[in-house]
């Protein structure tokens, strides 16, 4: 390969590479990636650069040709608005791969986007965060998709462990750290000590179930049909797990199921709280189960250190207050819940020894 001239510096002893050449080589030789392959969003961390990709896990495909029309943010904009010949697909369901072929195309797209088509000389080493409750077959599917997307090595680490590392918790110390990762498809709860997960509990109930609950609630109460995107916006704007200090209302547009025409209604936060109550209660109950099954010595640590919330679901208004009320324990939300898992996986790229120790076979 011929290097651009400005990367070579001539001197009395012949041609010597300057710092620009070293930087150029590093940029192309060392392309390790960390990926949070989520049900709702996929995030990609490039070593030395940080988070490069943060987009929805959605692919729009032309049914007639099989061609991928859009991926990520652009695909989400098309959700519910595509003609019959084009379909929007979510290849991830409940934290695992539901459509292998589409997941491979999506991952390949995000990897190329993260690399910015710079022509890397080596295939990347990839660390991927996965839910704790998935089967060996589901793990293999994730690994196979990454390998087919041009990875040289693939390491799988459990999302709660990755989130704990991303939140700078002292996972190597003999103390209990409880982390709750609420994503789009799963809620993972883990107690971590001495670089390992002492106890974990995973349920396939999370943010997506809240969206579905809002859709069903409005359909049943108001005979109004709304789409997934609208339900998610409602959840983010006025959804809550515990009464708010100040009531909130929101105008919602949808289709009247009786008249078949567009209609607008106004709902308040109390109604949306009622709509998602069953899902929130399931998450809180899962946390209680985890606390009941945690070894006593580690339970004492959790009383002092509290519960750490992460994942997109942690952004639901007053969820921390609801959990605090029901467990009587301190509850904290990480600085940026959406990126904690991928940042933790990214940190592992600099600590290969720890990565090999905590990665799943």
Structure characterization notes:
This protein is of the alpha+beta class and about 350 residues long. It has two domains: about 30-160 and about 340-360, ATPase, nucleotide binding domain (Nucleotidyltransferase, domain 5, 2-Layer Sandwich), CATH 3.30.420.40; about 170-335, 2-Layer Sandwich (Nucleotidyltransferase, domain 5), CATH 3.30.420. Helix content is about 40%, strand content about 25%. β9 and β10 form a beta hairpin. α6 (about 205-220) crosses α7 (about 230-240) and α8 crosses α10 (about 320-325). Mean pLDDT is about 90; it is low at about 1-10 and about 20-30.
In summary, what is this structure?
The protein is of the alpha+beta class. The chain has helices at residues 19-29, 73-77, 100-115, 136-148, 159-166, 207-222, 228-238, 269-293, 296-305, 319-327, 340-348, 352-358, and strands at residues 8-11, 14-17, 33-37, 41-46, 50-56, 59-62, 68-71, 86-89, 92-93, 96-97, 125-130, 153-158, 177-182, 187-193, 196-203, 224-225, 249-256, 262-268, 307-310, 331-333.
């Amino acid at each position: 390969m011929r290097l651009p001239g400005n990367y070579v510096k001539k001197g009395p002893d012949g041609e010597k590479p300057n710092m620009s050449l070293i930087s150029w080589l590093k940029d192309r030789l060392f392309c390790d990636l960390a990926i949070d392959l989520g049900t709702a969003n996929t995030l990609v961390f490039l070593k030395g650069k940080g988070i490069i990709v943060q987009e929805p896990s959605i692919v729009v495909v032309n049914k007639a040709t099989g061609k991928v029309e859009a991926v990520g943010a652009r695909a989400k904009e098309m959700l519910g608005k595509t003609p019959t010949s084009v379909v929007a697909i979510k290849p991830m369901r409940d934290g695992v791969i539901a459509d292998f072929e589409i997941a491979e195309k999506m991952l390949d797209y995000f990897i190329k986007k993260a690399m910015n088509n710079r022509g890397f000389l080596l295939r990347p080493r990839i660390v991927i965060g996965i839910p704790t409750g998935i089967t060996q077959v589901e793990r293999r599917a994730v690994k196979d998709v990454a390998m087919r997307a041009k990875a040289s090595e693939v390491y799988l680490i459990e999302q709660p462990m990755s989130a704990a590392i991303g939140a700078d918790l002292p996972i190597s110390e003999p103390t209990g750290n409880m982390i709750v990762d609420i994503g789009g498809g799963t809620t993972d709860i883990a107690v971590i000590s001495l670089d390992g997960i002492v106890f974990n509990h995973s349920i396939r109930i999370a943010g997506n179930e809240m969206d579905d609950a809002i859709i069903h609630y409005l359909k049943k109460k108001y005979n109004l049909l709304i789409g997934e995107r609208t339900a998610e916006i409602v959840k983010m704007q006025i959804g809550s797990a515990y009464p708010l200090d100040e009531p909130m209302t929101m105008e919602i547009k949808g289709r009247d199921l009786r008249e078949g025409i567009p209609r607008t209604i106004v709902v308040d936060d109390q109604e949306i709280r009622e709509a998602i109550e069953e899902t929130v209660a399931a998450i809180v109950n899962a946390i209680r189960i985890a606390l009941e099954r945690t070894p006593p010595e580690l339970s004492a640590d959790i009383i002092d250190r509290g519960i750490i919330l992460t994942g997109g679901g942690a952004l639901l208004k007053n969820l921390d207050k609801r959990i605090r009320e029901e467990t009587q324990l301190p509850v904290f939300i990480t600085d940026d819940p959406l990126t904690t898992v991928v940042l933790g996986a990214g940190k592992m790229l600099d600590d290969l020894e720890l990565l090999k120790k905590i990665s799943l076979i």
